[in-house]
Amino acid sequence: MNSTIFLAQFFGCYLVIMSVVMLIRHDTLLAMAKAMIDNPGLSGMIAVMRVMIGLLILLTHWVWVQAWPVLITLLGVLILGIGLMGFLSDNLDKKWMKYFKNKNTWAITAVVSLALGLFLLYQGFMVGA
After folding, report:
1. Which range marks the domain in which residue 88 is found?
2. 44 phi, psi to nearest 5 deg
3. Into how many domains does the chain fold?
4. Four-residue CA torsion sign, 26, 29, 35, 41
5. CA–CA gap between residue 34 and residue 94 (Å, rounded)
6. Enclosing H/E stretch for 11
7. pLDDT in tens, 40-55
8. Between the CA of residue 10 and those of 15, 28, 56, 120, what are the distances in Å?
9. By the number of CB atoms within 10 A of the CB, which of 3, 67, 72, 100 ranks highest?
10. Structure pTM?
11. What's the CA gap between 128 and 9, in Å, rounded?
12. How confident is the model at residue 94 (pLDDT cuts 50, 70, 90)?
């Protein structure tokens, strides 16, 4: 199994699961995010983890093609970028929190994530298998 298929399967499963949780447990996830923001040490560790995960993805999957595998690379760039911004901005998580308190914004984000997850699941398990 090559890294593109594995990462499509991984991100597909993760995005579908998290999207469903986002749609069902909005208030619980917001409370968890608030608790994280109120703890600077935890926010710092999460930024470190985001940088590590983003780098791992990019080092194993640096693919720039005009096809669906570029989505995996873009996810790696996004995760790495958010991790780096977490180091550079003390208030980044608070800004994200304000953005996601709006239930419409939250729902749109969850539906887009669900669609991307289902697409990656299809590519990883049906087309790539």
Report:
1. 3-127
2. -65, -40
3. 1
4. negative
5. 8
6. helix 3-24
7. 888 889 889 999 999 9
8. 9, 24, 13, 9
9. 72
10. 0.87
11. 10
12. confident
- Nearest partner of 120 among 73, 80, 79, 81, judged by Cα: 73
**Residue the block writes with tokens 């940088």:** 51
Cβ neighbour number for residue 123 with a 10 Å cutoff:
21
Residue 12 contacts by C-beta under 8 Å, 6 or more apart in sequence? 117, 118, 119, 120, 121, 122, 123, 124, 125
Give the tens place of pLDDT for each residue, 4-15: 999 999 999 999
Which of 115-119's residues contact partners 24+ apart within 8 Å by CB, and which partners?
Answer: 116/15, 116/71, 117/11, 117/12, 117/13, 117/14, 117/15, 117/16, 117/17, 117/18, 117/19, 118/12, 118/16, 119/12, 119/68, 119/71
